[in-house]
Write a structure and sequence with these properties.
254 residues, Rossmann fold, seven-stranded mixed β-sheet, two-stranded antiparallel ribbon, 9 strands, 19% strand, AB_hydrolase_1, EC 3.1.-.-, hydrolase, hydrolase activity, AB_hydrolase_fold
Length: 254
């Protein structure tokens, strides 16, 4: 179990936010602040991301235990959890294995199923190929990523992990630790017992991460769940439609 770093804002009952792959708690700063009048929001950095410790081991059982350990360290028996993508799977894993720890669950644009995502290894390879010792400006890294990652918004998201300290750039990601664990990250463990708590799935209208065939697993494992589609958004509805997203999260949290 690793001790996770976090960004904390607001006051009230605890709400934990779990980011997706290649993200960090800092990505959720504006959402966390907007929810701060409702909850004490803890936006965590999952292992191998942000300011949290690095490890060669990374799967959903381990990440869920990290979150449970964070809760225990703060003296919480239970918290509401909002998780996006990989963070959503981590939240679901915790809810299914330690249901007493999870109150209300909000899962953003991911289902409790395994996926095929051939692009993730390519992203990691592209970032690792950059010789950061020769880089003086962020724009240089952006240009080097273009041949592999054409989407400018995706490059901008990844480049949020590029940090300059003492005149040198480095990634705030354990790329070497994440790469061999990608099969576990795009998969999801098998579960038999459902989570009985209230669950809201928020899906981006233009995203393919929640497909019609996934809804059976969602209903079986989360029988008190509802699925809401957010129009004019893809895999990052919280960034693309923040006002609609916040309205739905507030409703889900009661």
């Amino acid at each position: 179990m690793l001790t996770l770093s976090s960004q904390i804002t607001g006051q009230g009952a605890p709400l934990i936010i779990l980011h997706g792959l290649f993200g960090s708690g800092r990505n959720w700063g504006s959402i966390a602040r907007a929810l701060g009048d409702l909850r004490e929001v803890h936006a965590l950095d999952l292992r191998n991301h942000g300011a949290s410790p690095w490890s060669d081991a990374m799967d959903y059982a381990l990440m869920a235990e990290d979150v449970a350990g964070y809760m225990a360290a703060h003296g919480w028996e239970q918290a509401d959890i909002l998780g996006h993508s990989m963070g959503g799977k981590t939240a679901m894993q915790l809810a299914l294995t330690q249901p007493e720890r999870v109150g209300r669950l909000v899962v953003v644009d991911i289902a409790p199923v395994s996926y095929v995502r051939e692009s993730f290894p390519e992203y990691i390879d592209a970032m690792r190929r950059v010789d950061l010792s020769r880089i003086s400006r962020r724009a240089e890294v952006d240009a080097l990523l273009v041949p592999t990652i054409e989407d400018a918004s995706l490059r901008a998201f990844l480049l949020q992990n590029l940090i300059s300290e003492h005149g040198r750039f480095h990634w705030r990601l354990n790329l070497a630790g994440i790469a061999p664990n990608l099969p576990a990250i795009i998969a999801f463990p098998a579960h038999q017992d459902p989570f009985g708590g209230p669950t809201t799935f928020l899906a981006g209208e233009r995203s393919d991460y929640i497909r019609p065939r996934d809804e059976e697993a969602m209903r079986r494992l989360f029988p008190r769940s509802k699925l809401i589609e957010i129009g004019q958004s893809g895999h990052w509805p919280h960034a693309e439609q923040p006002e609609r997203f916040l309205h739905l999260v507030r409703a889900a949290l009661g």
